[in-house]
Amino acid sequence: MGGMKSLFEQDNTKTAPLADQLRPKTLSEVIGQAHILAENHMLGQMIENGEPKSLVFWGPPGSGKTTLARLIADKSGYETENVSAVNSGVAELKAIFERARTRLKDGKRTLVFVDEIHRFNRSQQDAFLPVVEDGTITLIGATTENPSFEMNGALLSRMQVVVLQRLGDEALEELLVRAEKNTGKSLPLTNDARETLIGMADGDGRALLNFCEILFSFRGKPMDAKALTNYLQKRAPLYDKSQESHYNLISALHKSLRGSDVDAALYWLSRMLDGGELPLYIIRRLVRFAAEDIGMADPQALVQAIAVKDMYDFLGSPEGELGIVQLVIYLATAPKSNAAYVAQGAAMRAAKQHGSLMPPMHILNAPTKLMKELGYSAGYEYDHKAEDAFSGQNYFPDGMKREQFYQPVERGFERDITKRLEYWDKLRAKKSPAS
User: Fold this and answer.
1) Whole-prediction pTM value?
2) Which is deepest, 94, 139, 368, 386, by most CB within 10 Å?
3) Which of 202, 216, 167, 164 is nearest to 21 (CA)?
4) Whole-angstrom Cα distance, residue 141 to residue 330?
């Protein structure tokens, strides 16, 4: 069976890690992934039929990627090869492919499993293309990273992506029950501590069972939540500020702010800070939000955002983080308008469409005699001297119709702006009825 024993041959002995002892042997024992194991899903049918296709399992740690790969291998009867994405080079891959070709001549198929397949560089991924395409091997990869970003598009197009979810609280509780049944021991925890333990696992079944192994050796009265936290210490959150979770969480924060959900916004902010995100990166995104999603509905939003940047520069962490919290509350509860953002796009499109049209002559300065003779500034009306301090002159290029790029909303400060614009429109129509 190639080099797969360390991965696919299950060790049920009592000396094996608890995660290995409890690894599901059948589909019915898999928990937390009902959405991909239903009768009408191709994966469940593929496993039951023993006819695997090339797949990528994408999901968080401890969600069951390797378990499902093992079940596919067991059902298929294929010869299997286990590949390390960290240690295997192109030469080793070619040797695996040559063995697969030899087996194929004897009527035997080969399944190649690659854990953390996103760690392969482009040349290594390219090596799989011909043997996957011609059916020499069936490739199953597992990754915690978004394959759209981390995998060669050509290779990915020849594989089916199967998305696994982080294990929910019910699934993790089921794992605890199985662990207690397997060992014949009860976890030394109060009910609150049991819930805390599930939270500490952060959706990772393997991490939860590793915690259990430690707790089963504990001797003493049942621990409460605080004692448990001190005993195990806090597990690092699943957050990598250089990878997809970085973008997922800032997107969640931005959209919670846009939706005026202050509590959700505070939650996502806390997740990012807890995960080690750079506070100045968060502040930069909040400054952008103040201009893009609030704009002139509350012009003070941008002022507040810059003030928090200055506060954080002055105080640093952790004191300066309170300013970020205050800013998130301000932005979430402020009236929203993207009118300035929309106006920018509309004006830019118009600028590209109309090219290099000159401004009308009457609004051009005439610093030389020649320019005056050519009509520069002729007919310009100084608005401060006009009635209502509004001349109503045309400021668009000659030959271009007047356009309205900025359309304020009926919220916040833009209500007042709307009234001013309507007033000036009436004056403009009165002074220039033919325009």
Assistant:
1) 0.62
2) 139
3) 216
4) 45
